[in-house]
Design goal:
Order of helices and strands: HEEEEEEHEEEEEEHE
Shape: elongated
Number of domains: 2
Strand order of the largest sheet: 11-12-7-13
CATH architecture of the largest domain: Alpha-Beta Complex
Radius of gyration: 21 Å
Helix content: 10-25%
Number of helices: 3
Low-confidence stretches: none
CATH class of the largest domain: Alpha Beta
Amino acid sequence: MSRVGKSPIPVSKLVTVNIGSNNLVTVKGPKGEQSLQVDPDILLKMEDGELVLSRPTEQKRHKAMHGLYRSLIDNMIVGVTEGFKRELEVIGVGFRAIMQNGVLELALGFSHPIYFVPPDGIDINVDTKRSKNNFIIVEGIDKQMVGQVAAKIRSLRPPEPYKGKGVRYTDEFVRRKAGKTAAR
């Protein structure tokens, strides 16, 4: 039995969950609104301020969908109440990040600056006061979109193993390699 799917999803007083006739789940909260089309085989019901998901059979497909949709709906509820955040760090001499007019401008050692326009629903802020490195903060209510945007920014200049230069997550560990040694 799916351990993830069995546990009920607590719904706070700030959040309203609406289950449509064709399993369209709409979650509204203080930060925004999200909706998700759930597989018609999965049964949804509200009980005592908790959302409970159940599956009709023990088929492998139903087991997979049970845990998946439980996690997706829980992430929607967390997103509309607290939101999600990923932090990136820009490390390197001359590397910098600036937010101007809603566009992220990155100088990452190339011959030209890189301009990144965030998609709708995603807020990007640059914090330069923490240390000598720039920190890029990606925030939003959609967990998948926040992770995707952060991964896209990181892919513009991934950290290299010799000096550690590049764009990395703040909680990421970059394994360093030894450089060349002098020949005798």
